[in-house]
Amino acid sequence: MNKIRVGVLFGGCSTEYKVSLSSAAAVLEHLNRDKYDVVMIGITRDGRWYRYNGDLADIREDRWSSQSAQCVPAVLSPSKETRGLIELVHTEFHITTLDVVFPVLHGKNGEDGTVQGLLELSDLPFVGCGTLSSAICMDKAVAKNVVQAAGLEVPPSITVLAGDSIAEAVGAAAKLGFPLYVKPSRSGSSIGITKAYSEQELISGIEEAFSHDGKVVIEQHVNGFEVGCAILGDASQPMIGEIDEIALTGEFFDHEEKYSLGTAAIHLPARIHKDMADKVKAMALRIYSVLGCSGLARVDLFYASDGRLLFNEVNTLPGFTAHSRYPNMMKHAGLAFPELLDRLIELETAKAPL
């Protein structure tokens, strides 16, 4: 049986670079080498691309790019004729064709439609959402507007652009009522998010958010808790994982809490009744469809104390270690990590070329 050649992208010019390394190391560890010929493609923080031939441990520990003997300068070709990786070896170039690409990239320059656009240009099948859906879901302000236009509830918020009057923004946001969440519109892993209880904290939060993005969302706090729903496949024939719940004892689920769980706990399955679980799945699938998602995504909702469900965000490439939320939700639905990777790749390789 011919093996499927899978290009696994990792790293990237993103504040979530290290998260990508952890996710990619787990994916690479669990890909079945009897089925797949794996090509590792690393992107450094400053945007240099290499075919990497070294050890997984050096990816996990962020030593991979210092192993010069294991790194060959390379680029993904945008040409449909090439459909693969161009490696620059001294004065020559070598072409390695790829059957499918798994972009295990988080945040800007990877999860936001940029790499997806390159892959669509080259007509290379790839795991995950397409260019438009990836870009929309990465932009919290745009995603909320699209979801709200579809008739689904979102927390009240305002959007502030670089150059807008901070005083006017603070005045408008204060009318929503404190506390407020201040978020970079296009950032992941809760990086740059703060919680404001006063106008001064709001100003500081806006400044912090602007250091990560030129667009900021200021959002009303929702009394309740967050639930997540993992979806696999196309919206017409999806597999939906077990719902999880984030229980907080601290302020909010910030970047540190996501990876330490110091004052937070994740309950899987979520501590909600079946009828509410069914409503969560239905709303998550509706959002998945409205935002044009395909392949996979995790849809996060707020379950308000008064029983309402409100949209929070969609992660088109959520954390992908064996202990991350998305794989665990799928595991509890009966799909183990290696089989999850098989399904994701099969979804793309089974599609007829355009």
Automatic annotation (TrEMBL):
Residues annotated as domain ATP-grasp: 144-346
Gene it is expressed from: vanB
Matches recorded under SUPFAM superfamilies: Glutathione synthetase ATP-binding domain-like, PreATP-grasp domain
UniProt cofactor note: Binds 2 magnesium or manganese ions per subunit.
UniProt-listed Enzyme Commission number(s): 6.3.2.4
Family listed: Belongs to the D-alanine--D-alanine ligase family.
Coiled coil regions in record: none
Originating organism: Paenibacillus sp. BIHB 4019
Sequence positions that bind Mg(2+) 2: E313, N315
PANTHER family, per database record: D-ALANINE--D-ALANINE LIGASE (PTHR23132), D-ALANINE--D-ALANINE LIGASE A (PTHR23132:SF25)
Keyword Lipoprotein part of the UniProt annotation: no
Catalytic EC class: ligase
Keywords: ATP-binding, Cell shape, Cell wall biogenesis/degradation, Cytoplasm, Ligase, Magnesium, Manganese, Metal-binding, Nucleotide-binding, Peptidoglycan synthesis
Function statement: Cell wall formation.
Entry keyword Cell inner membrane: no
Record HAMAP family: Dala_Dala_lig
Record's GO cellular component terms: cytosol
Protein name: D-alanine--D-alanine ligase
Catalytic activity: 2 D-alanine + ATP = D-alanyl-D-alanine + ADP + phosphate + H(+)
Catalytic residues of the enzyme: E16, S189, S324
Pathway annotation from the record: Cell wall biogenesis; peptidoglycan biosynthesis
GO terms assigned for molecular function: ATP binding; D-alanine-D-alanine ligase activity; metal ion binding
